[in-house]
Description:
Blueprint: H1 2-22, E1 30-32, E2 38-43, E3 47-49, E4 54-59, E5 69-80, E6 91-104, E7 117-119, E8 134-136, E9 151-155, E10 165-177, H2 184-188, E11 236-248, E12 254-262, E13 268-272, E14 275-279, E15 286-288, E16 298-306, E17 311-320, E18 324-330, E19 336-340, E20 342-344, E21 357-360, E22 362-363, E23 371-372, E24 377-385, E25 390-393, E26 395-402
Bound molecules: 2-acetamido-2-deoxy-beta-D-glucopyranose (3 copies).
Amino acid sequence: MKFMSRDWMVLSAILILVLMLNTPCSSAISENNENNIKTTVFYSPKIELSPGFISNKVYYDVDFPRGHIALKSFHAELVDESGNSVPLQETYLHHWIVEKYQQPKNVPNNYQTDNIIMVRNSGLCQDNLLGQYYGLGAETRGTKTYIPDPYGVEIGNPEEIPKGYDEKWMINVHAIDTRGVEDRMGCIECKCDLYNVTINAVNGKPLDPNYKGGLGCCPDNGQCRMKKGYFLGPKHIIYLKYTIMWVHWDEYVVPVKIYILDVTDSWKRSNETNGMSIEHNCMVEYLVEACSKSHGCVDVKRASVPIKEGGYIIYSVGHQHVGAIRSTLYGQDGRVICNSYPKYGTGKEAGNEKGYIVAMSACYPKPGSIKLFDGEILKLTTIYNNSMMHTGVMGHFYFLVAEKLAQHHV
Length: 410
Ligand SMILES: *[C@@H]1O[C@H](CO)[C@@H](O)[C@H](O)[C@H]1NC(C)=O
Ligand SMILES: *[C@@H]1O[C@H](CO)[C@@H](O)[C@H](O)[C@H]1NC(C)=O
Ligand SMILES: *[C@@H]1O[C@H](CO)[C@@H](O)[C@H](O)[C@H]1NC(C)=O
């Protein structure tokens, strides 16, 4: 009898393990490597999608590493219920973003948005726009986010959290199910004439006939036009799987600040009681009109945006959509800070989907080699192939700045 029950216990332990491995659930498993870098895997709440439909939801108080720590990388992708990667031609990942906020302690579960204070990154757009800590789109599987030692994104510093508040995280996932749609590329570019919308989802106003596409035409629960005769297929259940690498905070970690520059930012200086300041006006996305030439069609967009405080660039990467050729971040004197190139897929499998951007190249300058001065005007150029029109494209540049270098780099 004793043996039997022991066997049964071992068996049920294995069974539970197998179940845990098979079902994406939010209980996280952390692993430690020899540099004390921990890796934790999390899953968003489940996302249900029928063919052609959009899910654009915000998940509050998501699972996240807790305590005073430094984030080293953030890798995300869409997976199905068995944890398998979902290819972009089935479900297009338009974007996911991760934002930090503070909230009074002990808020009941059904009052998740009460009294929250958003804590944005270090810049540069107005209000909370592009205030995320992390965020990517279709290119997420192939894009490096790792921050080299000893740098990291500091979070959970008790001195920065007001008394009586908790630090929490929200994730917004915008995914488009393109099974059975008439025009896959049009759907992922949120072209208004493919969607059943009359109200602009971003500003809540009636749709402007001159607005051809973008997030305004890609609302939660919207549906893209289907092929004739395509009947409702099965609902897919997917998750955003996110893998975070992090270390416990100590005096050897050097913090970096997060900036996102938007090529649509038409800022102006404005008068304030405490002196001149800069009023940003980021549009987040823009339209690339089709060119009228037969070849050599290239659309170039430029912005010059000042940053308040300088420092040393540790990491940078561009974010663009299909049609992208390149984006480049320059310093005020014209020196190249980073060229970020899209990589297009060539196959069918997840991570290499033909016609989609499956990676953006990131830059890792030798720490100390690229210094920004206080008030430096950074220049951003984003280039698209405009042999066809592209709606809702983006030209963002994400970069990390250390105010000081690690001791051994000085
Ligand atoms: C489009 O909207 C109309 C009116 O709201 C609705 O009847 C129809 O089912 C919608 N079609 C799709 C494809 O969502
Ligand atoms: C800012 O304020 C000063 C003093 O009030 C004024 O002379 C100047 O014209 C203002 N500049 C702008 C851009 O409004
Ligand atoms: C733009 O795209 C068209 C159509 O795919 C292609 O023929 C052309 O070579 C591309 N141009 C550039 C500059 O990449």
